[in-house]
Write a structure and sequence with these properties.
With 209 residues, this protein is mainly α. It is 65% helix and 0% strand.
């Protein structure tokens, strides 16, 4: 029995080595037809994935057996080719949402965020577009007050726009916001808007020269 197990182990090892070699040849030559000669299904999927993503070839991606792996490959092709329609056709919800978020950030198109199902990814998408465009009104789309106010903070400080601070209810966040804008714009008067005493002192101190 031990000799049989040993023989099967050696055979399995040789088969895997052969598959690895075939995979390497296929990827090096970008010849997806060679992937069909890979016996191990995981390595075969890896073969199609590497060639599909490297060549942005959707047909190769569709040969992947694993649903998750196929969606990842489609995601890579969609992002690399800037194909927002393909993003919507990805079956896996996680990769679909990631694709829409990345496309929205790349093209600075907020409407793409609206098709995202996951709330966290939806918020991240709107934040990226808002910062990219410098438009804090987009932050109003964000779910949940903390994330929404963080968006006002990020957009406002990036653009040194004190008006965005008026939308922040958090004393700490608004104080840090006004302090940063005061220093960036070299305007000590903005320090007067800082609500927290210690942060206000530091803000005023920055202009004591």
């Amino acid at each position: 029995l031990a000799s049989v197990v040993l023989g099967l182990t050696l055979l399995s090892g040789k088969s895997r080595d052969k598959d690895q070699k075939t995979l390497g040849t296929a990827v090096a030559s970008l010849d997806s037809s060679l992937c069909n000669n890979v016996g191990n299904k995981d390595l075969r999927d890896r073969c199609f994935t590497e060639i599909g993503t490297n060549t942005s070839n959707l047909d190769v991606c569709n040969k992947i057996g694993s649903p998750k792996g196929k969606s990842y490959c489609q995601y890579k092709v969609a992002v690399d080719t800037n194909d927002t329609v393909l993003c919507r056709n990805i079956n896996d919800a996680e990769w679909r949402d990631s694709c829409l978020k990345d496309s929205a950030a790349r093209n600075l198109e907020q409407w793409l965020c609206n098709d995202i199902l996951d709330g966290k990814v939806f918020n991240e998408c709107n934040l990226k577009v808002a910062v990219g465009l410098g438009q804090w009104d987009i932050c109003n789309n964000i779910l949940g007050l903390p994330d929404r106010e963080n968006c006002f903070f990020e957009v406002g400080t990036a653009a040194n726009d004190p008006d965005a601070c008026n939308l922040i209810t958090s004393s700490t966040l608004s104080s840090v916001f006004n302090s940063k804008v005061a220093r960036a714009t070299k305007n000590p008067d903005i320090c007067k808007l800082v609500r927290i005493e210690e942060i206000q002192k530091d803000c005023i101190k920055a202009f004591s020269y």
